[in-house]
Design goal:
Layout (H helix, E strand, L loop, with lengths): L82 H11 L12 E10 L18 E10 L14 E9 L2 E8 L12 H8 L15 H8 L5 H7 L14 E2 L4 E4 L5 E10 L8 H10 L3 H11 L5 E9 L1 H6 L19 E11 L3 H6 L12 E3 L3 H18 L79 H8 L3 H16 L4 H11 L4 H11 L36 E6 L5 H14 L2 E6 L5 E2 L5 E2 L3 E2 L10 E5 L4 H5 L3 H12 L4 E4 L3 H6 L10 E4 L4 H9 L8 H4 L5
Parallel strand pairs: 11-12, 11-16, 12-15, 16-17, 17-18
Antiparallel strand pairs: 1-2, 1-9, 2-3, 3-4, 5-7, 6-7, 6-10, 7-8, 8-9, 13-14
Helix pairs in contact: 2-3, 3-12, 4-10, 11-13, 12-13, 14-18
The structure holds CIS-heme D hydroxychlorin gamma-spirolactone 17R, 18S.
Length: 722
């Protein structure tokens, strides 16, 4: 491999005479910025060496002056002859590829999946059979509705797509952070997406469902209302990609060596616990840091705090499926964990950030049809539509059927077939034979192999050709109700608030009323709250195909019941000024580090502060760039002198009042009271304020923060709760 390095030549300013590149020794290899072996590991990073890099054209011609185009005289016209200029502009003009039609905004990371419990009894897939087997993965998290440049904290479903590079081919589990979907048949997908995305005449609103078209569609689609309940819950406002569950949604099949089939649903359970932010917080985070989620994931991996998810499976046979009160082929239904427990079979660890966002996160192409031998499909009609759509969409987006040659998509096992040519073919077979059968013996190329090859499960098929929706798909409200009653009161309140917010953005009164008519079939109390919040009379309940069943609550459906039990991996904002107490600051940061938490100093100037013992501490954030919404909890530790300035500063007052309004734990330093008073949040209002007057208080404060939020406060700070 040719040597290359990470250094760039210093750019030259206009008007400067170009620095002369040293002449190349005859026959010497030019160092390159690109790893040659891009076929493994999706790596695109430069290798290092001390050799200076010479900039070249795409054809490898060394460039003497990259700062000035070729002109007829210093003030004359630019010459068409300038192939260096033309090639550079040409390439730039073609840098963009179409963004994904859905899930355009996403962020990914590399990692590994390790199997801890063998499913060999159920599947012949090697990745699920050999305990200890480590399989390379790439994961892409995403929002659905917004464009590539939208913000991370939109109220939206999150994509959770995992590519496992198994020894038997790539396996893509293209899931979401919600276990059900809005529709039951793929033919409705374009309508759903048209309705939720920006309205076509005006091109807005961006990245949100709070508009007439979405609620018009949803209110005319009773099957959507289970998912609508999830969408209106805090599931769509995750604190981090690291604190979300992932779900394969559909039933798949596992097929073992004897050809026996078992249905399976896939779950990814975050070891970090579940956690979300509040709507008011999300709105502000979008302004303060639109990249909040990607930055969070990148920083966690960069610091060595590798996020982990356990892979769980719900396994069931046809007999069990027949006894379920719902049709498991209907993607608007889930199987409560109380009914079929989730068996944990392995762990996924994300341990390597992308080093080229485009080559990894943008070019990765997930396809639900990518399954290894031993994994098969159920008859879920949504899944069948997806199996067509994903391959098709990659052709549009990546421009060639050879997208599988791209490093991030290339299997890590041998690939051998007679497919050839096409745009940008990079994996080109050699030899005379490109067909089968052939009689060229050893030189005849690959052959099919019934022993190890993919065998579709021989499911018996019979039916009348017709366009119908199965009658077994027609109970639309029972699981929506089950979800609602499984939430803790504060979570139920958030669902009500979200519905009121969204429907308040809907201009047509009849659409609002039709939406509320569905809520009456889910929970009358919720319907009444929302109608009241909208200032309207209760409508008649929507006509239901089936009466709502009273299903038991399922604790696994609540975020709060499945939260973390420590402050590990969370972030504390510490507000300091010159003269803040060094001993206290040290005690707090030590307690946080012992907890595995991270912290950032927020100060009046980015240069930092000088503590009372003369120590200089750099700030990570200037106050107006580091609002408290960026942190899970805050400590306010100014000096007696410093607090006077903070008490006059709008950003400092917001820091405190937002932390209060968002129910965060607040550590109150000995000198902090004037700032709280000016912010109209006296620091003795509730038990979410903890004294941080002395170093010995630090541990108690960090321990209190394990609860993440002081929820009782919400009932006192929200108009809708009054
Ligand atoms: Fe997708 N979906 N989807 N979807 N989906 C795409 O494929 C589609 C559905 C999901 O990070 C597209 O490569 C149809 C359910 C994720 O690259 C497209 C239907 C679930 C991602 C597509 C669905 C998902 C996509 C757009 C209904 C959860 C992002 C770009 C039949 C289980 C993957 C692309 C990534 C992306 C089609 C429904 C998850 C157009 C037709 C249900 C996570 O092919």
């Amino acid at each position: 491999m040719a040597k290359s390095n990470t250094k760039n030549q210093a750019g030259k300013l206009n008007g400067e005479s170009p620095a002369k590149a040293p002449p190349l020794p005859a026959g010497a290899d030019l160092p390159t910025r690109y790893a040659e072996e891009q076929g493994t590991g999706g790596e695109t990073h430069q290798t290092t060496s001390d050799a200076a890099l010479t900039m070249t054209t795409q054809q490898g011609v060394p460039i003497a002056d990259g700062q000035n185009s070729l002109k007829a005289g210093p003030r004359g016209p630019t010459l068409l002859e300038d192939f260096i200029l033309r090639e550079k502009i040409f390439h730039f003009d073609h840098e963009r590829i179409p963004e994904r039609v859905v899930h355009a905004r996403g962020y990914g990371a590399h990692g590994v999946f390790e199997l801890t419990d063998s499913l060999a009894d159920y599947t012949r897939a090697d990745v699920l059979s050999t305990v200890g087997r480590q399989t390379e993965v790439f994961v892409r998290f995403s929002t659905v509705a917004g464009n590539k440049g939208s913000s991370d904290l939109a109220r939206d479903v999150r994509g959770f797509a995992v590519k496992l590079y198994t020894k038997e081919g790539n396996w893509d589990i293209v899931g979401n952070n919600i276990p059900v979907f809005f529709i039951q048949d793929a033919i409705k997908f374009p309508d759903l997406i048209h309705a939720v995305k920006a309205e076509p005449d005006r091109g807005f609103p961006q990245a949100q469902s709070a508009h007439d078209n979405f609620w018009d569609f949803a209110s005319l689609s009773p099957e959507a209302w289970h998912m609508v309940m999830w969408q209106m819950s805090d599931r769509t406002l995750p604190r981090s990609f690291r604190t979300m569950e992932g779900f394969g949604v559909h039933s798949f099949r596992l097929v073992n060596a004897e050809g026996k089939s078992t249905f399976v649903k896939f779950h990814w359970k975050p070891r970090q616990g579940l956690q979300s932010v509040l709507w008011n917080e999300a709105v502000k985070i979008n302004g303060a840091d639109p990249d909040f989620h990607r930055r969070d994931l990148w920083q966690a991996i960069e610091s060595g705090d590798f996020p982990q998810w356990d892979l769980g499976v719900q396994l069931f046979d046809q007999e069990t499926a027949d006894k379920l009160p719902f049709d498991h082929l209907d993607s608007t239904k889930l199987i409560p964990e109380e009914d079929i427990p989730v068996r944990i079979v392995g762990t996924m660890t994300l341990n390597r950030n992308v080093d080229n966002f485009f080559a990894n996160t943008e070019q990765v192409a997930f396809c639900t049809q990518n399954v290894p031998p031993g994994v098969d499909f159920s008859n879920d009609p949504l899944l069948h539509g997806r199996n067509f759509s994903y391959l098709d969409t990659q052709l549009k987006r990546l421009g060639s059927p050879n997208f599988t040659h791209l490093p991030i998509n290339a299997p890590r096992c041998p690939v051998s077939n007679f497919q050839q040519d096409g745009h940008m073919a990079m994996r080109n077979p050699v030899g005379r034979v490109n067909y089968e059968p052939n009689s060229w013996g050893d030189q005849g190329g690959p052959r099919d192999n019934p022993e190890i090859g993919y065998q579709s499960f021989p499911d018996e098929m019979q039916g009348t050709k017709q366009r119908v929706r199965s009658e077994t798909f027609s109970d639309h409200y029972s699981q929506a109700r089950q979800f609602f009653i499984s939430q803790q009161p504060i979570e139920q309140k958030h669902i009500g608030d979200a519905l009121v917010f969204e429907l308040s953005k809907v201009e047509r009164v009849d659409i609002r009323a039709r939406a509320v008519s569905h809520l009456l079939n889910i929970d009358e109390g919720l319907a009444a709250t929302v109608a009241d919040g909208l200032g309207m009379a209760l409508p008649e309940p929507a006509k239901a195909a089936k009466p709502t069943l009273d299903l038991p609550a399922s604790a696994k459906l609540s975020i709060l019941a499945n939260g973390p039990d420590s402050f590990k991996g969370r972030k504390m904002g510490i507000l300091l000024t010159d003269g803040s107490e060094a001993a206290l600051f040290t005690a707090l940061t030590e307690a946080l580090e012992a907890e595995g938490a991270v912290w950032e100093v927020v100060a009046p100037k980015i240069g930092g502060v000088t503590l009372d013992d003369g120590t200089a501490v750099a700030a990570k954030q200037k106050i107006d760039g580091g609002p408290s919404i960026l942190f899970d909890a805050v400590a306010v530790l100014p000096s007696a002198e410093g607090v006077k300035l903070l008490a006059q500063d709008a950003a400092s007052k917001d820091f405190v009042s937002d932390a209060f309004g968002h129910c965060k734990f607040i550590g109150v330093g000995a000198n902090a009271k004037p700032l709280f008073d000016e912010s109209r949040v006296p620091p003795d209002l509730d038990e979410g304020f903890l004294p941080l007057g002395k170093p010995k208080d630090a541990q108690a404060f960090v321990t209190a923060c394990r609860a993440l939020r002081f929820w009782p406060r919400e009932m006192t700070v929200d108009l809708d709760a009054a």
